[in-house]
Specification:
This protein is mainly alpha-helical and 290 residues long. It is 66% helix and 3% strand. Helix 1 packs antiparallel against helix 2, helix 3 runs antiparallel to helix 4 and helix 6 packs antiparallel against helix 7 (105-118).
Length: 290
């Protein structure tokens, strides 16, 4: 607390001398961490009047509203500045949490997608999108009496989930990529490649192949799935083949070294033996006086 007190005094003094200073952001953050939300909100409001485009101030104010569970206010602070902060991870992570709390699914998905694009190894974003995919790809069977209005579908989901609408006289089914079901009548279901992309991005090529194989079982004529499965299998086989070839080359190389070493050793032994026999012959001639 003493450290915070010193910082509060330092930033407050600087802010009193220069109301345009951006130190309002760290000062507001200190008040927020101490749970002094009224003071924090006051500092952020005043600071943003002089620095309306200062991202740290926007994020700090929004974080205060988020902590206070005033999610709509947090959203209203962040939304207008989204296009200017499309590469700001801290901003995007907070905005994604706010949208999720407000059940703005399409916005949350798009923001998590942007986070994953900027940071492919971000586990939180990847897990969210996989969980979303699992929910979105569960089978939705419409009852005989329930109508389905295509026009009410949210276009924001199209980038992540492809829907196949099979029209019937008395029933319509939405078939998604996981646990696909083919009805007796039928237009083949359209497979979404989103989960495949996520598996590949995480390096899980075998899981991606398994998913494509399941899709082929449901719709053997899906040319896009067939082509992608073939490509992934070829890449996997090529990698295995290359690994095997490299191993055999290394083995052959080592064998050659061993053989060459044996040949060199045999040559040395032969030379030593010949020299030994020569000495024996010389000794014999000397003794016999030849």
């Amino acid at each position: 607390m003493s450290d915070y007190s010193n910082l509060i005094e330092k930033y407050s003094e600087k802010l009193s001398k220069d109301p345009l200073s951006k130190v309002f952001a760290p000062l507001g953050e200190i008040y927020r961490k101490l749970g002094m939300y009224e003071r924090a909100l006051s500092v952020y409001d005043m600071g943003l009047k002089h620095n309306p485009d200062y991202t740290l101030g926007q994020v700090g104010l929004s974080q205060c509203y988020y902590d206070l569970e005033q999610y709509q206010r947090a959203y209203n602070v962040l939304k207008p500045h989204f296009k200017y902060n499309a590469d700001n991870i801290k901003y995007l992570k907070l905005f994604a949490k706010v949208c999720d709390r407000l059940n703005l699914l399409d916005e949350t998905v798009n923001i998590q997608k942007a986070i994953l694009f900027l940071a492919p190894k971000d586990a939180e974003a990847a897990n969210y999108l996989m969980e979303y995919e699992d929910k979105a790809t569960s089978i939705v069977e419409m009852s005989d009496t329930k109508s389905f209005d295509v026009e009410k579908l949210d276009d924001g989901l199209n980038g992540w989930t492809q829907l196949s609408l099979v029209e019937k006289e008395t029933q319509e089914e939405v078939i998604l990529e996981k646990k696909l079901v083919v009805t007796e009548d039928t237009s083949a279901p359209v497979f979404s490649h989103t989960l495949v992309d996520l598996y590949l991005k995480q390096g899980a090529k075998e899981k991606a192949i398994a998913l494509l194989e399941k899709a082929i079982e449901v719709n053997p004529k899906d040319s896009k799935v067939i082509e992608r499965l073939s490509t992934l299998r070829s890449e996997t086989e090529e990698a295995r083949s290359t690994g095997h070839d490299d191993l055999m080359k290394a083995f052959d190389s080592r064998s050659e070294q061993i053989n060459k070493s044996d040949e060199d050793q045999l040559e040395k032994v032969t030379m030593a033996f010949n020299l030994f026999m020569k000495q024996i012959e010389l000794r014999r001639d000397t003794v016999l006086g030849l």
